[in-house]
């Protein structure tokens, strides 16, 4: 399982900006659909945001392209879809300073009338990269969908994110990947690995940071469930 955090943009969520913007776009689509601001929207939608980063600092400098594919009423034109999505969704979500020579791909298939499970069915294991970091971090392959907190696929991924976010929040590193591995029947993880991509502060090495993590965080599943209070009824919203 993997957890990732970065201070590249949002100092509260510590989430990769490209993935965060994609999430915000689909949330904005839902808002515009429910409010009636864009009356021809239907529920099924997806988004992808590609950013250009400065290699030395890993800071985003501009938005290279934005893709939105959204289900719609059959009587709306492609021209209206494109102009409306750019003005009422993209420009409301993505900061103007990043929209420099940006390419927009709004419903590039030209028609997205049929959606939902009728068009594309399935549940367990779907969208595992969307559930995490949009490709910024590796993925162990375990899905969150349909699993209760006793399954480390879900709970340990949450905890690894909690640890990574804690390290960045407390300025131990600018960017952190936490990797943890388990075996069925053994409470303690088989391994814990930390990668700060060379951003450790005050001369701390990744090994030293790992020792800090092992001293301050308990990765046993029972503790994870207790510490993060994972038996709360929170999963309908996250699903």
Could you please describe the fold and organization of this structure?
With about 240 residues, the protein is α+β, with helices and mostly antiparallel strands. It has two domains: about 15-120, GMP Synthetase, Chain A, domain 3 (2-Layer Sandwich), CATH 3.30.300.10; about 150-239, 2-Layer Sandwich (GMP Synthetase, Chain A, domain 3). The chain is about 35% helix and about 25% strand. The protein contains seven helices and six strands; from the N terminus they run βαββαβααββααα. The strands form two sheets. The protein has a three-stranded antiparallel β-sheet. A hairpin with a 4-residue loop joins strand 2 (about 40-55) and strand 3 (about 60-70). The radius of gyration is 20 Å and the shape is globular. The mean pLDDT is about 95.
Name its key features:
239 residues, alpha+beta, GMP Synthetase, Chain A, domain 3, 2 domains, three-stranded mixed sheet, 7 helices
Quote the distance from N terminus to C terminus.
19 Å
Query: How many H/I helical runs?
Result: 7
Helix coverage percent of residues?
25-40%
Can you tell me the number of structural domains? Answer: 2
Mean pLDDT: 94
Q: Give me the count of strands.
A: 6
Query: Biggest sheet, open or closed, and with what strands and sense?
Result: 3 strands, antiparallel
Shape by Cα distribution:
globular
CATH class of the largest domain: Alpha Beta
Give the helices and strands, then pairings:
Layout: E1 2-6, H1 17-35, E2 41-54, E3 59-72, H2 78-93, E4 103-106, H3 116-119, H4 152-169, E5 175-183, E6 186-195, H5 206-216, H6 221-227, H7 235-238
Parallel strand pairs: 3-4
Antiparallel strand pairs: 1-5, 2-3, 5-6
Helix pairs in contact: 1-2
